[in-house]
Design brief:
Chains A, B: This is Crp/Fnr family transcriptional regulator. Chains A, B: It comes from Paragemmobacter kunshanensis. Chains A, B: InterPro entries: cNMP-bd_dom, cNMP-bd_dom_sf, Env_Response_Regulators, HTH_CRP, RmlC-like_jellyroll, Tscrpt_reg_HTH_Crp-type_CS, WH-like_DNA-bd_sf, WH_DNA-bd_sf. The structure is a homodimer. In chain A, a hairpin with a 5-residue loop joins β6 and β7. The longest helix of chain A has 27 residues. With about 250 residues, chain A is of the alpha+beta class. The first copy, chain A, folds into two domains: about 140 residues, Jelly Rolls (Sandwich); about 80 residues, Winged helix-like DNA-binding domain superfamily/Winged helix DNA-binding domain (Arc Repressor Mutant, subunit A, Orthogonal Bundle). The first copy, chain A, has eight helices and 13 strands. The first copy, chain A, is about 40% helix and about 25% strand. At the A-B interface, β7, α3 and α4 of A face β7, α3 and α4 of B. The structure holds a DNA duplex (30 and 30 nucleotides).
Chain lengths: ~250, ~250
DNA sequence: AGACATGTTTGATCTGCATCAAGGCCAAAT
DNA sequence: ATTTGGCCTTGATGCAGATCAAACATGTCT
């Protein structure tokens, strides 16, 4: 066994998953040092494109603050979001030099980047990084498959409810908030971005959000601020199995 | 660097990816021996369920022959296929004890299984297995994201054309067939399974297959045997970027 | 204050796919 | 030879969500 007692080490990079988790106490300093050497930060403004599909991508990165999206586009302009990156999420693919999707900052964004070549070398000599990355990728794959069920089989109303539940959950998780009482959060996406996430038009998104409000499932303050008084009520609207785990 | 000159070793397990790729010549015998010790085969008949979502899953496996599907089901019976496993595909998730989807044999199926515990131990001591698995999982994630674009934004006709192109490609790849002249293959799925793959109803699938036939994009012999005389013509119907790579 | 841009809501209409329903094909069972 | 059952096709109808269009809300620039 290459590693010993695992512990979490804190560092300036927040939730950066590469360094945050499964760092072995004994190897820690050496490993962290090497990571420090190859890392650098990048900032983007809301709306800026980080990278276009097909462009050369010579780094991997994790989101420090802000939100980014992965989208695929068809020639005629139809767009489908295929990934939503919140802080601590990883982007990039060891072993591939070309981006497969457009990556866009939807809010101001800071990413912690690692140049690909040295990162891959580090991966070679540090097996648990590959294992951690595998774990994360499998989680993403599970999320993608939930998403496929949503896209293929859910109604517009269920899609909206599902998205709100997903954001509420992730938000609560980030804030480490207790899962009691009202849940309050700001939508990090425009109606159009929500539509791209859900495979709908922005008009349908708008209508269904209004409908959920009218039916008392959610409350709206302005256009982005959401209040969920009864999370179970929202969950019932998602169409998912009821025992899907409460705010995880 | 833990490994040396990589080479492919052949063995009775066909395309099994775990053992097929990236096996280091020097470590080979030891590693293969340990894999042999923990592997076993399982057979299923067409239509049999391999495992239900939520069930305990104490193995990982790769498909040797036949076809399996991963599907998610909503309480009211709506179904969405989220994975299609052809020979050499991997199923299961190190680090999780419960199946997240229904796994079903759609044809007679043979899988090469590894009990999870020893497999995970082997992964610990054999870093390149984790790396290989990571590579495969990232490929699957890419495929899932293509699939999301299909589910969210493509028309019924584009969905059918895309599915046919996917199967034609994988089929051709398996058979190592040259990519010239007519492409001929048998659909491994019923109309209903195609519908579950595409987020459609079986009636719509039937109608659109007929329409592609009527329009000369494909020819049909019986209900399952497909002849594609001009693959580019089919690709044009998919809505994908034209330069999506010819038959690979 | 007015003009403009961006994002959102709401209404009217259209349409692609779902739904409901009936019948055809074919292989296996009796 | 007929029945059975699985799979597939085709037709008629309905509806959820797309599309087209207009107006509103909010913030910012001049």
């Amino acid at each position: 066994m290459a590693h010993h007692d695992l512990q979490t080490v804190s560092h300036e990079c927040g939730d950066c998953p590469i360094r945050h988790r499964a760092v072995c106490a004994r190897c820690e300093s050496d490993e962290l040092q090497r990571l420090e050497q190859i890392k650098y930060y990048r900032s983007y403004q809301a709306g800026q494109t980080v990278i276009w599909s097909g462009d050369r991508m010579d780094f991997v990165a994790s989101v420090v603050t802000g939100i980014a999206t992965l989208t695929q586009t068809m020639e005629d302009g139809r767009r489908q979001m295929v990934g939503l990156l919140l802080p601590s999420d990883f982007v990039g693919r060891p072993g591939r030099t070309t981006a497969a999707y457009d990556v866009t900052a939807t809010t101001d964004l800071v990413m912690c980047c690692f140049r690909k070549k040295p990162f891959e070398e580090l991966m070679q000599s540090t097996p648990h990084i590959a294992q951690r990355l595998l774990e994360m990728t499998l989680d993403e794959l599970d999320a993608a498959r939930e998403w496929m069920l949503l896209l293929g089989r859910k109604t517009a109303r269920e899609k909206i409810a599902s998205l709100l539940a997903i954001i509420a959950r992730r938000d609560a998780h980030l804030k480490l908030k207790a899962a009691k009482g009202s849940i309050v959060f700001d939508l990090p996406l425009t109606r159009e971005e929500m539509a791209d996430y859900l495979g709908l038009t922005l008009e349908t998104v708008s209508r269904q959000v209004s409908a959920l409000k009218r039916d008392g499932v959610i409350e709206l303050e302005g256009k982005r601020h959401i209040i969920v008084r009864d999370f179970d009520l929202l969950l019932e609207e998602t169409g998912d199995d009821s025992d899907g785990g409460y705010l995880v």
